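Quick question: what would this complex look like in 3D?
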Amino acid sequence: MTKHEIVNQLLPIFRRYGYEGTTLSRISEATGLGKASLYHHFPKGKEEMAKAVLEHLKEWRQIHVINHLLGEGSPLERLLAMTESMRLVYDQGKQSCLLTILSMGDSKESFSAQIQPAFESLIETITVVLVDAGFSKQDANERAEDAILQIQGSLVLSRALDNNSSFQRVMSRLPYSLLNINNQTSQTKEQ
Amino acid sequence: MTKHEIVNQLLPIFRRYGYEGTTLSRISEATGLGKASLYHHFPKGKEEMAKAVLEHLKEWRQIHVINHLLGEGSPLERLLAMTESMRLVYDQGKQSCLLTILSMGDSKESFSAQIQPAFESLIETITVVLVDAGFSKQDANERAEDAILQIQGSLVLSRALDNNSSFQRVMSRLPYSLLNINNQTSQTKEQ
DNA sequence: GTCTATACGTGGATAGAC
DNA sequence: GTCTATCCACGTATAGAC
């Protein structure tokens, strides 16, 4: 089994159980590999596994979010591509964000070096799009922060209420509200 | 030592370390009580302790948030009282929300019976205020959800970036943006 | 590269004295 | 109501055979 495949199996476990809740036994069971085999691939143990997953997600973000945001098309089209990717990776709001999971609790310090730049690069890239759309640098940056904040908040609420409607609503309106456009599904919210 | 005092000491521990990261040893050290003494107060152990903290927070919310929202004054004044309380309990965004902490990871199921109504009652109460302010029931409800979602999102982001500016910004503008009012510190965001 | 077996610490929890 | 002492399960991690 290749390391890449293992990392792919690790993601849902860490997302579901959190860092401390993810035990080697669970990982062993999910992957079918013995604990010793896991240490063969990740000599530094669980922490290294989580870091590998974060690195894997970084590549995913680069390909499926950052590149789309910096790609061809109007600002609206680029933002729509972003929300589409977000819907996918968070399974319509039913899955938590690993960045958030790992930034809470005891594990925080171990991963902040990966978590912080992850959010920062997302915000910065959205800022670029909004500057393209005509907003001032400062205004664009605050709006970009708002975007991330609303996504994360909707994920929190969807999880807490066991109901993903808030995530769906935020995803639907976000590209339009960021650009101050009224669209059909959210006429009353961006005024 | 009274149970009330113990619960007060438990809150910061669960908030900081999460449920799995909060060990009896840590609690014992923080409270100065031996493990056996803790079991005298909470026979069902750690889970009962966390539930007691959630119950304690419920009372706090009732007194410091719900009552203010349903109290005297204009809608704006009531919302300002709410954000003031939020600033306090989250220490200007430097502290996490226990509801969010406990709704993540392995512990989720044990506490959803307390977490879900907590968010629901907050949303419902804000909805009442916004209906008072003239919004339709449906519109008010979505805005109330947005309020909670933005608060939670700003806490997530403040924690992840180790920088509470997003929390401060959301708290400053929220009472105004909910009511579609332009205020001095956030002219450009409620368009 | 994967396994079995095992070591070691620590977590949650309890018994029983005071 | 708090303590000391202790139990058991399970967590991370390693040794060594295949």
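Answer marked as accepted. Chain A has one domain: 3-190.
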